[in-house]
Amino acid sequence: MKGRLFFSMLFLCLVMVSGVLGCARNHRVGNSIEAPDFSLPSVDGGTISLGDFRGKPVILVFWRVNCPSCEYQMPFLQAFHEKWSDDKVALVTVNVGEPPAMVAQYVARHGLTFSVLLDTRQQVAQTYGIVGVPFTFLIGADGIIKAYKVGPFQGMEAMESAVKMVFPDVELGM
After folding, report:
1. Once rounded to an integer, what is the mean pLDDT over residues 138-143?
2. Contact yes or no for 62/96 (Cβ under 8 A)
3. Measured distance CA(143)–CA(31) in Å, rounded
4. CA atoms of 59 and 85, how far apart (whole Å)
5. d(CA 6, CA 170)
6. How many whole angstroms separate alpha carbon 95 and alpha carbon 43?
7. How far apart are CA 171 and CA 13, in angstroms?
8. Distance of alpha carbon 135 from alpha carbon 118, whole angstroms
9. Residue 164: pLDDT above 70?
10. 3-class state of residue 51 by DSSP
11. For residue 145, what is the domain's CATH number?
12. Span 146-163, pLDDT tens digits
């Protein structure tokens, strides 16, 4: 009984440590995992596919309205979008599982101008293996997942640094 408890606690500690380490930095994924394509309605009424951005690096962010870390990150996403998106890097965000009206109110209240897609049934999040938000993927112009980040960026500069590290050919002129 004591041995079982010990190994259970050891396993739990290892899982927690690996989770904390995983949240602490961007992770290289490799050069062979293609980002699953999807089409979702956008908060402004259109439909957007990930494939629409092929040929340009993409920052794909999964988030929720009632997520403090997501709320913390939103100003950085907006500032990054205003400075760089659509010019050098596409910023695409996916709200996970919340009512469209709630998301639309949030977008309007915060003056967000980047793409906000609605994954109301959480199918895309499930396809990507999202276990929590915010969760960010950095996808190359070729559609390959280059890196991911669990948790919020700590500032626009951190986003720019991640883009520069993962996509060295993209000149942000920092």
Report:
1. 95
2. yes
3. 10
4. 9
5. 49
6. 9
7. 41
8. 15
9. yes
10. helix
11. 3.40.30.10
12. 999 999 999 999 999 999
- End-to-end CA separation in angstroms for the chain: 58
Residue 83 corresponds to which tokens in the numbers above?
């400075």
Number of domains composing the chain: 1
- Kindly state whether residue 73 falls inside one of the protein's structural domains: yes
Q: Residue 5 is encoded by which pair of tokens?
A: 């408890």
Residues paired with 28 in a beta bridge: 147
CA atoms within 13 A on the CB side of 143: 11
- Euclidean distance between CA atoms 140 and 146, whole angstroms: 6
Is position 21 within any domain? no
In the structure encoding, which two tokens stand for residue 110, read together?
């915060």
Its pTM stands at: 0.82
Domain that holds residue 53: 27-166
Q: Is residue 155 part of a domain?
A: yes
Which alpha helices (H) appear in the chain, and where do they start and end? 2-23, 68-83, 100-110, 123-128, 156-166
CB 33 within 8 A of CB 145: yes
Q: Which two tokens stand for residue 131?
A: 């276990």
In the structure encoding, which two tokens stand for residue 6, read together? 């010990």
Q: Is residue 162 part of a domain?
A: yes
